[in-house]
Design brief:
heterotrimer; A mainly alpha (315); B mainly alpha (310); C alpha/beta (332); A: two-stranded antiparallel ribbon; 13 helices; C: 332 residues; alpha/beta; 8-stranded mixed beta sheet; 32% helix
Chain lengths: 315, 310, 332
């Protein structure tokens, strides 16, 4: 198990190094990073000034070394627009994004797993049809469109929720979510809900046919004991890695959702940065998002190992 | 989607069909489609989109670019102020929404089709190389594949699109190249599986050339999984294209595409909600059709699944 | 000896998309207190299906028990296992009839400690609290010969060897003092030496607890050492039932004769080829209209193709489903 964790950590570090490489050279894709950052009618002098300021006139390897050196201490340069270190901006926006993504995941787990279990345990039933339909629809509705529709129905028509913005409820310095998170989180989480329904269903259907479930029946256990103790428990192990992957999707998906709801998070920051051609900030966000996803994958792999005794006590 | 017994059975039937001719196989696939109605529904939905893309000039009642400010912001025909002349209403510039949706399917399908074509053919090639040569080449390729698959896809796609700018070809290339790893992984997995089965040695020992092994044994086994994945990936690309369009990073705003229409619709969301509603429905319709089709294809074609369920 | 289980005319079918599989076509047998009944036959002959039908362990659908009765002598009177309510059935499973499955690695839950897997059965059937159930579990594990049972209580199945896992499986089956234990090919996946140990263990436990054992196997060699009586199954029918010694000396069904002839014998002439039964078992999708063995039978004659033979009594406790009298070498 220790060797397994160690090798996964090394692997993650290598991936992050690769990410830095990609993020850096992405700007060189068009040949001249400065032309990306200025408006179309900038004069050559202006461009030269910026080139000087950003250090793009130096040899590329030196630039790269500098970039890596900075990245290792969390320095991704200044945001051109905000005149503030990029990482600082990201960290300021982090709580809002975490609130949104975590709520979305919570909604997905609370709906997806029970529905998947219900459906997998009675294939062909009403619940099964419902869950399969919900799973499919959840997978095919784009979250950016769903968000628009939810705003029209629940904010504009019914007036139940605010159409945009994040409001928090401050209790002893903690920022607690208010109902303003519900619409964004629901639109963001629907895809994941669909994935979880489908995944749980097929896992249950498969595990139901395992020999050890038959053994459990032969012991005279009750159905609900068998489902909770033997089927759901065993299905939850592969579910861990699904949840890890899905959290990464939720972070990415926040680009749309935060833009639509003017939610002051990282996704919104990214959309803004792209609109402003603020590429130092875009680079920093891309790296930060990768860091989060890679770390999550690492953690879920470790959690997977801990949850499965065959790996935990293996060599 | 189908139940275990169902999958097992279709699997068996495919095995039988593999031994007979192409014609009877077609008939047979038709029979499978008829029995599993969801696959048929998916196919029909997908064909509707394809037909509207191909015959857009015939089907669309208006030129999708024609502005008619007098008829602007007209709601769909069934609402009180609506008019049958514009069945789904018009947008802020008085362009006919139905016509724009019909033309929009061209952008979606072009991006999806060519994107998958690039990703699939390059992925197949690279995957064959990785699986076949093994060793250091394989390590390097798989290292890159794992690196790319570990990235938050959407963030990087948005990043690249912002750098490269708008344009149909650019979007196709972005999706075509970023989607290669998925196909590499599948191809390589299949090559390794066949290599490990000891059967390549057997074929080599009786004098088969490597080229023949690839064409006679590895490719036929790959067709099923590749078609299935291609369907899902195409549907995903249609999604992502619309998403990029929504952020203003896909085709130029003048081109009627579902994503661009959504971006416009968002601006008028609270007053003229139908502008955003219908292009979204078109995306859902296409996605639903392709997912139903993909699920059915997976059940019927994927030998891995068949083996697993046995 | 008194009967503990009487099965009559058990018919089980599988309704699949490909058609109906006639898995059991009227199987009848009985089991006495304290005896060991071996059920032999090739795979697909319906040995396991028979036993799982009794406990409703088959996946339903596609399986359906169409006919028959299975009377079990419970402490307070006979009950028909096929007509039980769900709670009654649960009381029988594990509590009255224990089941040892073939491959302990897949039959034990990989992510649950073996201790809990034994304990959950105890807590279901005996009114013991967790602590007492744990105590009993450790005693059971010791009893089935797991060294250091106390420390191994919290181990997972994959941490045991094949033989030890099968012992755990036995502990699960006998955890609640059942009247009958069904051993479904418990030794097939094991080495020969370990096989012998498991057989010894089962016999010891049977003697100590006075339970009846139904031992399913396809290995006639194992049967000779453990069984009191043998039931031979072919294509979903019980074709011959006999006390064990009679069966080996006077097989009264051509299929049994073929099976015995296929056994390798010590002292047989070198170079002599092992006999095998020609042909393959019939397609179970066809409902049986005549003797199912007729295709492969060296003695078949017109009557064999006209109707399925009934069960003939050919000796004390010896029955066969065959129209041909093998002693007299002529049709009955």
């Amino acid at each position: 198990m220790q060797r397994y964790i160690l090798s996964r950590i090394v692997q993650s570090l290598l991936i992050l190094l690769g990410v830095l490489f990609i993020v850096f050279f992405m700007l060189q894709l068009t040949g001249d990073p400065v032309s990306l950052m200025v408006s179309r009618n900038a004069s050559p002098e202006q461009m030269e000034m910026l080139r000087e300021e950003m250090g793009f006139n130096r040899p590329i390897l030196i630039q790269f070394g500098d970039f890596i050196g900075g990245a290792l201490v969390g320095d991704f340069g200044m945001s051109l627009r905000h005149r503030q270190p990029a990482m600082e901006l990201i960290l300021e926006r982090l709580p809002a994004t975490v609130e949104l993504a975590a709520t979305a995941l919570l909604i997905a787990l609370l709906i997806g797993i029970p529905l998947g279990l219900l459906s997998g345990s009675n294939p062909g039933s009403f619940w099964d049809t419902l869950a399969r339909g919900a799973g499919l629809v959840g997978q095919t509705i784009p979250n950016f469109w769903l968000a628009l529709i939810l705003i029209v129905v629940f904010s504009v028509e019914l007036g139940w929720f605010p159409t945009f913005g994040r409001r928090t409820w401050d209790v002893f310095g903690m920022e607690l979510p208010t109902k303003s998170v519900i619409l964004p989180a629901f639109s963001l989480g629907l895809f994941t809900t669909g994935q979880l329904v489908r995944f749980t269903r097929s896992a249950v259907l498969e595990i139901k046919n395992e020999d050890y479930v038959r053994t459990a029946y032969s012991k005279g256990l009750k159905d609900n004991q068998i489902y909770l103790r033997h089927i759901l428990r065993n299905a939850s192990i592969p579910l861990i890695s699904i949840v890890g992957v899905q959290f990464g999707y939720l972070l990415s998906g926040s680009i749309y959702i935060e833009t639509i709801f003017s939610w002051p998070g990282i996704g919104n920051l990214l959309a803004e940065a792209i609109g402003n051609r603020d590429f130092a900030l875009v680079q920093a966000i891309a790296f930060f998002a990768s860091l989060v996803v890679v770390t999550l994958n690492l953690l879920t792999d470790i959690a997977y190992g801990l949850a499965d005794p065959r790996i935990r006590y293996g060599d | 989607m189908a139940d275990t017994a169902d999958i097992k059975e279709t699997g068996l039937l495919v095995d039988q069909a593999a031994e007979t001719g192409f014609r009877s196989r077609l008939i047979y696939v038709g029979r499978l489609l008829w029995r599993d109605k969801t696959g048929l529904v998916g196919l029909i939905m997908f064909l509707i989109v394809v037909i509207s893309a191909v015959f857009a000039p015939v089907l669309a009642p208006y030129d999708p670019l024609r502005q008619d400010l007098r008829a602007a912001k007209q709601p769909p025909a069934w609402s009180e102020e609506g008019d049958i002349s514009h069945p789904l209403g018009t947008d802020n510039l008085g362009r006919d929404i139905l016509s724009r949706i019909i033309y929009g399917s061209r952008v979606s399908l072009t991006v999806g089709f060519f994107g998958v074509l690039i990703a699939c053919s390059l992925g197949l090639l690279i995957g064959l190389i990785a699986g076949y040569l093994g060793g250091r080449v394989d390590n390097v390729i798989m290292g890159l594949v794992n690196l790319i698959l570990a990235l938050p896809y959407l963030v990087f796609v948005v990043f690249i699109a912002a750098i490269l700018g708008q344009g149909l070809i650019i979007v196709i290339l972005i999706f075509g190249f970023t989607d290669i790893p998925i196909f590499v992984r599948i191809t390589r997995g299949e090559v390794l599986r066949i290599r490990e089965s000891g059967f390549v040695e057997a074929a080599l020992s009786i004098g088969s050339t490597r080229k023949r092994i690839i064409f006679n044994h590895i490719l036929p086994n790959l067709i099923g999984p590749l078609i299935t994945i291609a369907t899902f990936e195409m549907s995903a690309m249609i999604f992502y294209e619309a998403g990029l369009g929504f952020l203003g990073l896909s085709v130029p705003p003048s081109v009627p595409s579902w994503g661009n229409m959504l971006a416009t619709g968002r601006k008028y969301l609270t007053i003229y909600p139908w502008i955003a509603t219908f292009p979204g429905l078109a995306i859902v319709f296409t996605g639903l059709g392709m997912n139903l089709l993909g699920d059915w294809l997976r059940d019927v074609l994927d030998p891995r699944l068949r083996r697993m369920k046995k | 000896m008194s009967r503990i289980l009487t099965v009559k005319n058990l018919v089980t079918r599988f309704y699949t998309f490909d058609g109906v599989v006639h898995a059991l076509n009227g199987v009848s047998f009985h089991l006495d207190h304290g005896e060991t009944l071996a059920i032999v036959g090739e795979s697909g002959s319906g040995k396991s299906v028979t036993m799982m039908s009794l406990l409703h362990l088959l996946p339903m659908p596609p399986a359906r028990i169409e006919e028959g009765e299975a009377v079990f002598e419970d402490d307070d009177g006979p009950i028909d296992l096929l007509k039980l309510s769900k709670p009654e059935r649960r009381r029988v499973r594990g509590g009255k009839i224990g089941y040892i499955f073939q491959d302990a690695l897949s039959a034990l839950n990989p992510v649950m400690t073996v201790g809990r897997q034994v304990r959950e059965s105890i807590m279901e059937h005996l009114s013991l609290d967790q602590k007492a159930a744990r105590e009993r579990t450790i005693q059971l594990l010791e009893h089935v010969g797991i060294p250091g049972a106390k420390s191994r209580y919290g181990n997972y199945p994959h941490q045991f060897s094949g033989g030890m896992r099968q012992r755990v499986m036995i502990a699960v089956a006998i955890a609640c003092d059942p009247k009958i234990v069904i051993a479904d090919e418990p030794t097939t996946a094991l080495d020969v030496t370990v096989q012998a140990q498991i057989i010894e263990l089962t016999k010891r436990i049977q003697d100590e607890l006075g339970i009846s054992v139904i031992w399913i196997t396809h290995d006639l060699g194992v049967v000779a050492g453990i069984a009191d009586r043998v039931l031979v199954m072919y294509a979903g029918s019980a074709v011959e039932i006999s006390p064990v010694d009679r069966l080996y000396e006077h097989p009264q069904h051509p299929y049994t004769e073929g099976l015995l002839a296929a056994l390798p014998r010590v002292g047989a002439k070198r170079g002599k080829r092992l006999a095998s039964i020609k042909g393959s078992p019939p397609d179970l999708q066809e409902p049986p209209r005549h003797c199912q063995f007729a295709w492969r039978c060296p003695y078949n004659f017109d009557r064999c193709w006209a109707s399925a033979p009934p069960l003939f009594e050919v000796g004390e406790g010896h029955y066969t489903k065959c129209y041909y009298d093998m002693d007299q070498e002529r049709p009955r």
